[in-house]
Amino acid sequence: MKRIAGLLLLVFVLAMGASASAEVIKIGVFEPMTGPNAAGGEMTVEGIELALELRGEVLGRKVEIIVVDNKSDKVEAANAVSRLIERENVVAIIGSYGSSLSMAAGDIVNKAKVPTVGCSPTNPLVTLNNPYYFRVCFIDPFQGTVMANYAVNELGAKTAAIIQDVTQDYSVGLSKYFVDAFRELTGDRNSIVEMSSYNTGDQDFTAQLTNVKNKMPDVVFAPGNYGESALLIRQARELGIDVPFLGGDTWEAPEFLTIGGVAVEGAVFSTHFTAEAPVTEESEVFLAAYREKFGREANAFAALGYDAYMLILDVIEKAGSADSQAIRDGLAATEGFVGATGVITLDENGDAVKSAVINQVDDGKFIYLTTVEPF
Amino acid sequence: MREKSKTQITLIILVLTALGLFLANRYLDPYKIRIINLSGIYVTLGLSMNLINGMTGMFSLGHAGFMAIGAYTVGILTMPVTMKEMNFFMQPIVPFLANVEWGFLPALFAAGLIAAFFGILIGAPVLRLTDDYLAIATLGFAEIIRVVFTNTQSLTNGALGLKGIPNYTNIWWSWGVALVTVWFIWFLMKGTYGKAFLAIREDEIAARSMGINLFKHKVMSFAFGCFFAGVAGGLMAGMLGTIDPNMFRITLTFNILLIVVLGGLGQIGGTIISAVIVTVMMEALRFLDEAMDLGFVQIKGIPGMRMVVFSIILIIVVIIREKGLVRRPKGRELTYAKN
C-alpha cells in the first residue's frame, strides 16, 4: 500500500508544473516526432519554427511555441494535447500530421475551448461538428475531385482504374471522391474499370496490377504512402502498364523518387504547394527563409506548418487579444488570408477553401504543372 | 481472527481508494484525470492478460484484437444516430445498427461478451497449441481482426475510423471496472478454477492426470481474459471519443505485455502497480523531450529521449527484479507467481 500511496503522490507532484508568465503568448504544437509518422511531423515543425523566427512577436508580446511529441499514437496524442492545455496553458494549438491523431485531440480542444489549427489532416471528419478545429489544408473530397478533373480534361481519359491503400484513411477518401467525380465527368457509370486494394507495408502488387492490366484503363489513380506507391509503379512498369499514374499529396517526398527511379517518371499528383512556382508573395518570403535556414528546398508540410502559425498570429493581431475565444472567433471569420500555400478562406466547417497544385515527376524532380482553383 | 482483520484491511483500502479517486476527480485538472483514467484501463488490461499469460501459462498475444472488438462494439452501440450518419459518409452504416443508441453499461457488457465469444471461438481450436505456436496463432488472429475492421466499410467505417463516440469514461468507470477485475480475478484464483489454472501452468500432464479438464479450463481462462480486454477496449473508446483500426496494432499488445512482465507473471498486486507506473512514467518523463537549461549549458530538446530513458529503466528493473517489481513473501494473497 505504501507504494501505491507513493505513486498517488507522484501523480499529484505532476501537478506542480511550470507556471506561465502573463507576458508570453504560448502556442502549443502536437506532432508525431517519433513513430511511423515522424518524418511528416518533423517537416511540419520545421515550418513552424521558421515562422516563429520570422515573426516571434505579436501585440508587443513574445510568442513561445511548445512542441510535444504524440508518438504517432492516438492515446498519446490525446494526452499530449491535454497536457498542452492544462499544464502549459496554451492559447491555441497547431497539429497534427495524420488525421487520426488530430481526431483524438478533437474532443479535448472542443471541451476546453482552445482553438486548434491542423496543418495537413485531410480527413473530412477532423473538423466536422467541432467549432474549435480548423485547418489550413484542403480536404480529400476536393483533392480527389481535382485529380478526376485533371484525368478527364487534361489527359482525355475515358476509363480509370483505382488501386487504393485500404488501411489509410486519406487513400480511401481520395479514391471515393475520384470515383464519384470521374463517373460524373465521363457520364459513364462503368468508367471505373477496376478497383483494387492493398495494405500499408505490402511489397508485392502483382495481383492487383495484373487485374488492372487486363482491363486496360486510360489512367490509374493510386493514392497511397510514397514507399508503397513507388514500388507499385515500378512493378506496373515491369508488367508493361504504360498509362499515366495519378496520386495524392503524400507522394511529395524525396523517397518517392529514390525508390521509384525511372519508373515514376511522368507520375502526376496533387499537392498543397510547390517550391517552383510561388503562389503568393508570402510563398517567396517563406521559400527564401527556408532555403537560408535549412539549405534545401521547402516541402508542402513545412509550408502548411508555417501557414498555420502565421494564420494564428494574424488573427491575434487583428483581434487585438490573445484570448482563446477571440482567436477562435477570428479563425472562424478568416477570409483571404495570404499564406505560403495560397490564399486561405475558411468555410463554415473550418476547412480551407484554396487552390491545389498539380506536380509531375520529370527527370528525377518534381515539376510544377498547374494550379487548380477551388470550385 | 485473521480472516476478520483481512476483511477490515480490504475495506479500508477500498474506502481509501474511493476517497482518493473522489478527491482526484474533484481537484485535479482534466490532464491528470486523463492519466488516472488511462492507468485504470491499463490495470484492467494488464490483469486480463496476466490471467491468460501469467496464471494459466498460455502465451497469448491477441489482446489488441480483443480490445478492438470491445472498442468498436462500444463505439457503434453508444454513438448517437445523427453522429453515425455524419461518420458513415462514404458508405451508409448497415441498417440494423443505424438507429441503435445504447447506454454505456449495456454497451460495455456487450463489448465484453462479444470479445469473450470470439475468444472462445478462436480459443477452441487454437488452445491445443502451446507456447510459441499459441503466440503466433493469437497474434495472427489479432491482425485478422484489424484487417477485417479496415475492410468492413459499412460496419466499422474502415480506415476512416469512428469519431464522436460519447465520452462516458470517467474515473468511476475506469477504476470501477479495474476494481471489479481485481476482485473477480482474486476470487477466481482463490477457488478451484484458479487452482486448476495454476496446475495447468505448472505441468499440463500432471494436471490432467489429476483429473483437470485441460480444454475446459484453458478456454475458460482465455474467455475471461478476453471479456475484460473487450471491456477495457470499450472504456478506451469512451475515453478517446474516436477509434480506428490502426490503433490496435501489435505494439499495443506489447505495451500490455510489458506491464504484465514488469509487474510479475501471475501477480495481481504487481500488475496494478506496474500498470500505474508505466502509464504515469510515460507522461512524467516528457520533460526529457523538452529543451533543458542547466544554467551553464543549454540542451536542445530531442524528441523521443523519454522513450530511451524509459527503456533503460525497464532494462535495469528487469535485470534487478526478474520476478517482477513487487516481491512478496510466499503464500501471501494476490500472488500467484511461478516458483
Structural class determined from secondary elements of chain A: alpha/beta
Radius of gyration of chain B: 21 Å
Number of strands of chain A: 16
Q: What low-confidence regions of chain A span 5 or more consecutive residues with pLDDT below 50?
A: 11-21
CATH architecture call of chain B: Orthogonal Bundle
Average pLDDT of chain B, to the nearest integer? 89
What are the secondary-structure elements of chain B, in order, as H or E?
HHHHHHHHEHHHHEHHEEH
Question: Which secondary structure elements does this structure contain, and how are they paired or packed?
Answer:
The complex is a heterodimer of chains A (375) and B (339).
Chain A: H1 2-13, E1 25-31, H2 38-54, E2 57-58, E3 61-69, H3 74-86, E4 92-94, H4 99-112, E5 116-118, E6 133-135, H5 140-154, E7 160-165, H6 169-186, E8 192-198, H7 206-215, E9 219-221, H8 226-238, E10 245-247, H9 254-260, E11 268-271, H10 281-294, H11 300-319, H12 324-332, E12 337-339, E13 342-346, E14 352-353, E15 356-362, E16 365-372
Parallel strand pairs in A: 1-3, 1-4, 4-5, 5-6, 7-8, 7-9, 9-10, 10-11
Antiparallel strand pairs in A: 2-3, 11-15, 12-13, 13-14, 15-16
Helix pairs in contact in A: 2-10, 2-11, 3-4, 5-6, 8-9, 11-12
Chain B: H1 2-27, H2 30-55, H3 63-78, H4 81-87, H5 95-98, H6 104-126, H7 131-151, H8 153-156, E1 162-163, H9 171-190, H10 192-202, H11 204-209, H12 214-240, E2 242-243, H13 250-263, H14 268-284, E3 292-293, E4 298-299, H15 305-320
Antiparallel strand pairs in B: 1-2, 3-4
Helix pairs in contact in B: 2-9, 2-12, 2-13, 2-14, 3-6, 3-7, 3-12, 6-12, 9-10, 9-12, 10-12, 13-14
